[in-house]
Amino acid sequence: MSTTRDTFGIVLTALALIAMMVSIYLVFMYVPTEVTMGEVQKIFYFHVPSAWLAFFAFFLVFVFSIIYLIRRDKRWDTLAASSAEIGVLFCTLVLVTGPIWAKLVWGVWWTWDARLTLTLVLWLIYVAYIMLRHYMSDPERRATFSAVLGIIGFIDVPMVYFSIRWWRTQHPQPVVSGGEGSGLEGPMLMTLMVCLSTFTLLFFSILRYRLRLQALRDELDELQDLVEHGE
Amino acid sequence: MWRAIATILWKDLKIELQTKEAFSASFVFSLMVLVIFNFTLDLTSEESVKMGAGFLWIAFAFGGTLSLNRSFALERDENCVQGLQLAPVDRGGIYLGKCLANVIFMMITQIILLPLFAIFFNVDISVRPHYLLFVLFLGSVGFSSVGTLFSAIAVHTRMREVILPILLLPITIPILIAAVEATAYALGADTDPTFWFRLLITYDVIFVTVSFLMFGYILQE
């Protein structure tokens, strides 16, 4: 499989590239600048799609982990691991773009609000997931153990979110003015939707490359094995 | 299944009674955490009452990971994991026995640590003692439930002492939040505790159930 040309992957990447050009045009040329927040609000069109994809990726880890435990097919493990890596990447983007916006609009880089805290905790959980994979060498054991973590990690998401929310209501709130996303209209909503689709395309194209990389690595391992031990 | 639980629990308790390794490690470490708090924060007695619940749970959580690490490191050292894998008993029974042993170890450390905490930080721990015991129990169950499962995972990795807290602490954040709030009430804070106690019980049920179901997969490998 790996030696043939990956036509689907190339088409996917090309589409993502075109969509990205369109998104950049929409964000910087087409969509009107928000009145109160100014230019910095544009980061929202990258921040929200990244957040959506990070959650989506972690949801995929959960689904693939369950399928792996039922089917015991290595493919699902590779899919789960790849989704986790890409999820951490997008989660990092969320954690970088968020504070840049917050500093200018809220006046602080960070507040311990439920959504922010949840994102940070998610990042920690899935970085731990990746670390666990790196610290294990036996492939089947690694697959099973990380599947278990992938499942528990995702079940934990609503628990973390709600406990932080309820905990927050009991403590003094930092001064935070109106959330984003409220009352989006016309061009802004359209631009956001286009950006969401673009990021989703990008996600699948990265996932495709990641799977191909894994296939090549496995092939290399087999060949090395062959060279060292003969038939 | 009950017999498996009882046998595993009895075995772990007996080993602990002879070696006292899990207890001494987690107790000394937790105590150290409290002492370091004192130096780094230099609190007045009023502030200590306010933040005491938080201190306690940080100490319990860090000390707890040490004794949890030991839970399966013990089985690995003499290759006993294989024995457990081959044992013709329900996997769930092994899990519950191990988990129960860890809850007991954690609570013993907590109960011995509490009076020392009261003395060092000038906090009155006898305001609502039965609530306090109940929180300690619920918190330990929540922490040990996932902790026992992750301990079984961690022994099979390189850097096993390091990986357990990295896996366990982010996952148990909901337990810690609820336990701290409930402990604050038990230490005399003016809050409504029913909500946090209910939440803690709910989380315990979820964590124990999920870990119980997952443990079979871990032991198989």
Topology:
The complex is a heterodimer of chains A (231) and B (221).
Chain A: H1 7-30, H2 44-71, H3 74-105, H4 114-134, H5 139-168, H6 186-229
Chain B: H1 2-19, H2 21-41, H3 45-77, H4 80-86, H5 91-121, H6 129-154, H7 160-171, H8 173-186, H9 194-220
Helix pairs in contact in B: 1-5, 2-3, 2-5, 3-5, 3-6, 3-7, 3-8, 5-6, 5-9, 6-7, 6-8, 6-9, 8-9
What would you note in describing this structure?
The complex is a heterodimer of chains A (231) and B (221). Chain A has one domain. Chain A has 231 residues and is an all-alpha fold. The two termini of chain A are 21 Å apart. The longest helix of chain A has 44 residues, at 186-229. Chain A has six helices and no strands. Chain A is globular and about 70 Å long. The mean pLDDT of chain A is 87. With 221 residues, chain B is an all-alpha fold. Chain B has one domain. Chain B is 86% helix and 0% strand. Chain B has helices at residues 2-19, 21-41, 45-77, 80-86, 91-121, 129-154, 160-171, 173-186, 194-220. The longest helix of chain B has 33 residues, at 45-77. Classes of the chains: A mainly alpha (231), B mainly alpha (221). The A-B interface holds A 69, 121, 124-125, 128, 131-132, 135-138, 140-141, 144-145, 147-149, 151-153, 155-156, 159-160, 162-164, 166-167, 170 and B 146, 149, 153, 156-159, 163, 166-167, 170-171, 173-174, 177-178, 181, 191, 195, 199, 203, 206, 210-211, 214, 217-218, 220-221.
